[in-house]
Amino acid sequence: MKTELPAEVAASRALWLEQKHADYRKKKLRRKTQVLIVRSSILILFFVLWEAGARLGWIDELLFSYPTKVFRQIWDDMVSGSLWPHLGMTVGETVVGFILGTLLGTLLAVIIWWSPFLSAVLDPYMVVFNSMPKVALGPIFIVMFGAGFTAIVVTTLSITVIITTLVVYNSFCSVDPNLVKVVRSFGASRVQEFNKVILPASFPTVVSTLKVNVGMSWVGVIVGEFLVAKSGLGYLIIYGFQVFNFTLVMSSLLIIAAVATAMYQLVVYVEKLLLSRR
Amino acid sequence: MLPVVELKEITHAYLGDREASLAIEDFNLSVGQGEFVSLVGPSGCGKTTLLSIIAGLLRPSRGEVLLSGRSAAGPSPEVGYMLQQDYLFPWRSIQDNALLGLELTGRLDEESRSKTLQLLADMGLAGKELAFPAQLSGGMRQRVALVRTLATDPGLLLLDEPFSALDYQIKLQLEDLVSETLMRRGTTAILVTHDLSEAIAVSSRVILLQRNPGRIRRIFQVPEAIRSTPPLYARDLPGFAELFHEVWKEMELAGREGV
User: Fold this and answer.
1) Cβ(B233)–Cβ(B201) under 8 Å?
2) Alpha-carbon span A175 to B71, nearest angstrom
3) Is it the case that residue A1 has pLDDT exceeding 70?
4) Nearest CB to B101; choose among A178, A186, A203
5) What is the chain A residue with the closest CA to B104?
6) Is A186 in contact with B74 (Cβ distance < 8 A)?
7) Percentage of the residues of chain A whose pLDDT score is greater than 70
8) Whole-number pLDDT of residue A256
């Protein structure tokens, strides 16, 4: 049985709860602000120290350049338009490598899940290929596909595909066998088993490999460009290094950091979108 | 009338890298229409193996399973299987979970759909159709699992300790619900359980197994009076305690000898 509280007791209790909640939210907001302040201070301090260090001669300006010069360089390249083809090339390679790598890796995972025999056969090859530094294959890719877009995308794929396959295949295998038992007891076929249980159960893992693959794709593309390219941000870095223009190197690095972060955030957003419907 | 399920000289061996072990040997059993049979016994006596064989999930090394006189090969929609836990799919709503069996067997239409939704309502789950499993309590989830199993209208229901993971009170409620539902539908059932009082309360026959290898040790007939009373009240009937002790003593012996 529930006894009615006198009105004033109920009101004071509500007030008290309200106050507690307000305090809690205020504390949380304050914390958030603190984090934000310290976070931006670090960034600003970094650039200020860099600038000051170069101008006051603490670090070699020729090697490390300095922020105003680097930003000037970026701005000039943007205005003159000479940046865009390089940026477009690199982003294009990364996006293609990323999408193809994820698709091929997942597809391969499906195939070896489908056939345990094939999985057993391929296992040592996958281990070898996964452990070896794929970048070492670069020269072979260049000979096979010519110095250019294809070779760079293939270098990227060599980095992303196998790891995607391993992660996704593992998540296929770690689906609770009892969930599989449920559908099998209804006489489900292997296709149904995959569509109704395995894929939906591992979907979050598949989506989260996307995030890993963005980073991997950047590694593949930049390394690929180091090796062969005649354009792209990786090429700019190598070129800047060879002609001893470290302002160019630094500005390329900053652009890569910015674009790679943007791409990563985009994938995080897509992940949220895909998983929120569940 | 043909028995709903008949096991003929079932022998099953588990083959591993190091050894082959005999789980069940020469097992014969016949369960008639509307019967409720319990399998009890010390752990490792092959109870769950037997259920998997009847469900068609496991092919026996030797012997034959007949479902209504026909030899069974592989899972059949005739047989429903309920597991120890609900194993609802967390990414599916309650109604989509309940409709899974119909979806898989290609029998999902307006009629079967509304029948299933009605069944959910009958089990006290009205209003939860669009909720997700994580939002439901353990007892509710197990009821959804029961609906999922019953939705395809199986003539034979296999229950593998379906109440063991639940709180005691919920477990008693669910025993009543299952026993009443099955009786009303005339569904034949085989229950595997560790709980002797549960076995006696819900079933018409209690089959005690022994291990190494798994085989029938003794069969206890449950008196009509206990059989026809809802499980919760059956426990208070005269004769229940005596039968319980008889089964208990025999199981103790089985456990000691089987080691």
Assistant:
1) no
2) 32
3) no
4) A186
5) A188
6) no
7) 97
8) 94
Q: Cβ of A185 and B75 within 8 Å?
A: yes
Do B151 and B99 form a contact (C-beta atoms < 8 A)?
yes
In this complex, the residue of B75, B83, B85 whose CB is nearest that of residue A187 is B75
Nearest to A185 among B57, B89, B103 (CB): B57
pLDDT in tens, B5-62: 888 888 888 888 888 888 888 888 889 888 899 998 887 788 888 889 999 888 889 9
Over residues A166-211, the pLDDT tens digits come to 999 999 999 999 999 999 988 888 999 999 999 999 988 888 888 8
